[in-house]
């Protein structure tokens, strides 16, 4: 997947949605750049600061540090970015505007449409593989 992935822009949109895995609702953290290209994703059982922070560290280490991140009013995402800025002495600007995050919200619709016929996933591994394939589709220009 990394070979086919193009470079991402310096402005990210970060959001989370929920999907069903083994009959349990799990959270899918996703980041897309300004043009709608997927930066990274993380599937986790809990929606908390540590999950958002591990996702942010993973996304930055796989790509690079963004200049600005647009998020909704999520407290866990805000706290994760503030902790990252404090620990790494960087200045990632946080913009909390729901209208700037529409690219991510519309992308959630595409993912849920792709997996709705399966009524959720049977395991985390199958969810990871399917989601990486869906995100790989969005890399094609």
Automatic annotation (TrEMBL):
Keywords: DNA recombination, DNA-binding, Transposition. The keyword DNA-binding applies. Residues 10-137 form the DDE domain. It comes from the Bacteria. InterPro entries: DDE_dom, IS_Transposase, Transpos_IS6. Transmembrane segments: none annotated. PANTHER family: BLL1675 PROTEIN (PTHR35528:SF3). This is IS6 family transposase. It comes from Flavobacterium soyae. The lineage of its organism: Bacteria, Pseudomonadati, Bacteroidota, Flavobacteriia, Flavobacteriales.
């Amino acid at each position: 997947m990394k070979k086919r992935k193009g470079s991402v822009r310096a402005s990210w949109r970060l959001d989370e949605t929920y999907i069903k895995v083994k009959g349990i609702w799990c959270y899918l953290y996703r980041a897309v750049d300004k043009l709608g290209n997927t930066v990274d994703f993380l599937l986790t059982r809990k929606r908390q600061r540590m999950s958002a922070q591990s996702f942010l560290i993973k996304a930055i280490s796989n790509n690079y540090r963004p200049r600005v991140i647009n998020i909704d009013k999520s407290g866990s995402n805000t706290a994760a970015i503030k902790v990252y800025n404090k620990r790494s002495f960087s200045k990632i600007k946080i913009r909390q505007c729901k209208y700037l995050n529409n690219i991510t919200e519309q992308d959630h619709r595409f993912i849920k449409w792709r997996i709705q016929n399966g009524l959720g996933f049977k395991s985390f591994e199958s969810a990871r593989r399917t989601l990486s394939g869906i995100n790989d589709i969005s890399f094609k220009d």
